[in-house]
Design brief:
- By secondary structure, the chain is an alpha/beta fold.
- A hairpin with a 2-residue loop joins strand 4 and strand 5.
- The strands form two sheets. The chain has a six-stranded mixed beta sheet with strand order 2-5-4-3-6-7, sandwiched between helices. It has a two-stranded parallel ribbon with strand order 1-8.
- The relative contact order is 0.08.
- The chain has three domains: 192 residues, 2-Layer Sandwich (Nucleotidyltransferase, domain 5); 87 residues, DNA polymerase, domain 1; 78 residues, DNA polymerase, domain 1, CATH 1.10.150.
- The protein is flat.
């Protein structure tokens, strides 16, 4: 079968408040919307939502939140369970809507999740559309990594954005039917309801966030003091320049500067983001501040409670993981979808509490659909392994 080619059609740009108010009644007449968002996190800092694509019926609207400020009606629609909202891989979208606008989204159907529960290992939109509807999209790196802040958007960019929602309703209908045929629709619907609880989590303040850098604990106390000043310098410069921190100095460069400032400063290539912007002096001052500050010992935190599984527990866990692997293979699903590993570890460590895992599933992130379909079988496996020990 020859793949179909997308005709060069884009959506209607909505970049004024009067235009937005004019289309609202057309959105409100529909009970199903397909949505996607474009952000500028690869080019700007802090990141913002720069475009909201909406398909309503046969119409596609490209809403410009940088120009249209009053989006409250959209938030009301998103939060209304009477409208179904179709996304593809909506994790970032939901957090971004919460971060930038305080919007909550209810009655979600995620076509990426649906594809996973149909056994797909390639769940990008392009792959799922190709496999399901035989549709090929223009997903070039140039378009994927463009700066969505820039205006006007090119015709190619507008078509790319529109394509992200163009086929979602049709894709949802096909995937939904396949899930229904396999008896897995309720599984996906429960997973989608869980998505409604996603919220944006603000990052730690920069005075603390530097501890997250991989390699921080390998530095000595003096070097860590330098690293913290470098991290603060980079954060301030990123905000001043409206540029992502990693484009100013990658983490590897921060660590190299902290561990050996003189040697690292000899490599202009890794510091081009600082030197080119004329902030070399600020960089040197940050290093000197760090060298003058008191040494910074390793962060003292409460020791995490490690699950010390005794030998018998390890044997049980191995058996439970084998069960999950076999079940996933039989159903053509990623084994991780069958049962959460955290719950298996708890059952292996304290097999007498296995029944409690089925009664209080939140402890191990167990879903209700998992309990209904696999709970009794898993419980028997735990009891058999315990008896065998």
């Amino acid at each position: 079968m020859t793949p179909s080619v997308m005709p060069p059609r884009a959506g209607q740009i909505i970049d004024t408040t009067p235009a937005w108010l004019k289309i609202l009644p057309r959105l409100q007449r529909q009970r199903m919307l397909a949505l996607d968002l474009e952000g500028n996190g690869f080019f700007r800092y802090p990141e913002k939502v720069c475009l909201i694509q909406i398909k309503s019926g046969e119409e596609i609207f490209l809403l410009d939140p940088l120009a249209v400020r009053s989006l409250t009606p959209l938030g009301q629609i998103l939060n209304d369970p009477h409208w179904e909202k179709i996304f593809h891989s909506c994790d970032w979208d939901l957090r971004a809507l919460d971060r930038d606008f305080g919007f909550r989204v209810r009655h979600i159907f995620d076509t990426s999740l649906a594809a996973k529960f149909l056994g797909s290992n390639q769940t990008g939109l392009g792959n799922v559309l190709q496999d399901t509807l035989n549709v090929t999209l223009n997903k070039t790196k140039k378009l994927q990594r463009q700066d969505w802040t820039l205006r006007p958007l090119s015709a190619e960019s507008l078509q790319y954005a529109a394509d992200d929602v163009r086929y979602l309703p049709k894709l949802q209908a096909v995937l939904r039917q396949r899930l229904q045929d396999l008896g897995r629709l309720e599984w996906v619907e429960e997973e989608c309801r869980r998505l409604e609880n996603l919220r944006y989590a603000a990052p730690r303040p920069p005075q603390e966030a530097f501890w997250n850098l991989k390699g921080t604990f390998s530095l000595n106390d003096r070097q860590r003091a330098v690293l913290r000043e470098l991290f603060l310098f980079r954060e301030a410069l990123a905000l001043e320049m409206n540029r992502p921190p990693f484009k100013i100095m990658p983490e590897k460069t921060l660590l190299e500067l902290a561990s050996n400032p003189a040697k690292a400063m000899e490599n202009p290539k890794s510091l081009s983001g600082v030197f080119a912007s004329g902030h070399e002096r600020g960089l040197r001052e940050a290093i000197q501040r760090g060298l003058k500050k008191p040494p910074l010992p390793r962060l003292k935190t409460e020791s995490p409670v490690f699950r010390r599984i005794v030998a018998d527990g390890k044997r049980i866990l191995k058996s439970l993981k084998t069960w999950r692997q076999e079940k996933g293979k039989a159903l053509g699903l990623d084994p991780a979808l069958i049962w959460p590993l955290k719950s298996l570890e708890i059952m292996a460590q304290t097999p007498d509490s296995a029944q409690d895992q089925l009664l209080t599933p939140s402890q191990g992130e167990v879903r209700n659909w998992q309990i209904r379909n696999f709970g009794e079988e898993l419980l028997r496996r735990v009891r058999e392994e315990k008896a065998a020990g």
